């Protein structure tokens, strides 16, 4: 049975609207996607670290309660779990403040079993951080050699703008490992001072990875792939309660589509058809739209239950 392995940070998100806290939920880029996939019946594992405190215990319990294998979440007694404050504006887009403990340079974990065509999701600064780069790089190399599909969400925040030069070699290595890369126009404005998807793909991505998805909030999604394939996909208009998990859940839906459509690494390497890209993007949009209907970072349990019932 194919499975999805996510690796990334865990945070505890406190969400504010009009200056008042309105929700507090576990979060993290890869974490949010993995929760949505777990709720949708996908065999999932999450690799991360947390403090051995009430928040860390809650995060691990939350993973397990949503069907995610949490055996590879390391809890450190000398660290505090990370917090994220998200402030929603009038359009329910979020501005963030992060309070994070530095990842342990001793971050060690047992590799979960990875088989050919399993999917590995890695993302955000955790995937670039020099403090854990040896472990991250070794794990990605192992997953690639095992024949997994590597899906990379760049998700580079403005809070790390001053570190771009330092992490560029790690970024390039991540792109080289990847079978599919997704990022937002905001990510690339920070990294490359360039937000035009065509220019980013041609000058920064395509040499390393041919399959590229660029999201731009409510604007159309741009997809680029082998053989000069390019297509844009519009988002249907909707009233968003929160956009905090929109990109993370696009990743979840896209990965769910890879599983549901039984798309393998060989298929990706030989080039997907337009119909396959259409279906995968539709799954991504559906998960993203569902997440935006509420204040939480993931698809609802009812949404996941319907997918499980139809699988």
From TrEMBL:
<protein>
    <submittedName>
        <fullName>Fructokinase</fullName>
    </submittedName>
</protein>
<dbReference type="InterPro" id="IPR029056">
    <property type="entry name" value="Ribokinase-like"/>
</dbReference>
<dbReference type="InterPro" id="IPR050306">
    <property type="entry name" value="PfkB_Carbo_kinase"/>
</dbReference>
<comment type="similarity">
    <text>Belongs to the carbohydrate kinase PfkB family.</text>
</comment>
<dbReference type="InterPro" id="IPR011611">
    <property type="entry name" value="PfkB_dom"/>
</dbReference>
<keyword id="KW-0418">Kinase</keyword>
<dbReference type="Pfam" id="PF00294">
    <property type="entry name" value="PfkB"/>
</dbReference>
<dbReference type="InterPro" id="IPR002173">
    <property type="entry name" value="Carboh/pur_kinase_PfkB_CS"/>
</dbReference>
<feature type="domain" description="Carbohydrate kinase PfkB">
    <location>
        <begin position="2"/>
        <end position="261"/>
    </location>
</feature>
<dbReference type="GO" id="GO:0016301">
    <property type="term" value="F:kinase activity"/>
</dbReference>
<keyword id="KW-0808">Transferase</keyword>
């Amino acid at each position: 049975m194919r499975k999805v392995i996510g690796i990334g940070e865990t945070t505890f998100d406190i969400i504010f609207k009009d200056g008042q806290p309105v929700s507090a939920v576990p979060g993290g880029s890869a974490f949010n996607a993995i929760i949505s996939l777990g709720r949708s019946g996908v065999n999932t594992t999450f690799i991360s670290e947390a403090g051995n405190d009430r928040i860390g215990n809650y995060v691990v319990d939350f993973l397990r309660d949503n069907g995610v294998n949490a055996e590879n979440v390391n809890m450190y007694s000398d660290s505090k779990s990370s917090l994220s404050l998200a402030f929603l504006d009038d359009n329910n887009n979020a501005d963030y403040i992060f309070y994070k403990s530095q990842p342990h340079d001793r971050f060690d974990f047992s590799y979960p079993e990875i088989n050919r065509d399993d999917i590995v999701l890695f993302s955000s600064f955790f995937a670039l951080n020099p403090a854990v780069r040896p472990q991250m790089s070794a794990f990605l190399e192992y997953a690639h050699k095992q024949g997994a599909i590597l899906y990379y969400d760049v998700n580079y925040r403005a809070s790390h703008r001053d570190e771009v030069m330092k992490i560029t070699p790690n970024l390039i290595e991540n792109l080289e490992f990847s079978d599919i890369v997704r990022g937002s126009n905001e990510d690339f404005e920070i990294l490359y001072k360039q937000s035009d998807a065509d220019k980013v793909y041609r000058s920064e991505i395509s040499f390393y990875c041919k399959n590229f998805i660029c999201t731009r909030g409510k604007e159309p999604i741009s997809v680029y792939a082998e053989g000069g394939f390019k297509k844009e996909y519009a988002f249907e208009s909707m009233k968003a309660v929160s956009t905090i998990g929109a990109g993370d859940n696009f990743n979840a839906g896209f990965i769910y589509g890879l599983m549901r459509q039984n798309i393998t690494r060989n298929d990706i390497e030989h080039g997907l058809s337009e119909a396959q890209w259409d279906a995968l993007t539709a799954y991504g949009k559906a998960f993203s739209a569902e997440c935006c209907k509420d204040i939480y970072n993931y698809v609802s349990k009812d949404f996941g239950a319907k997918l499980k019932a139809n699988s």
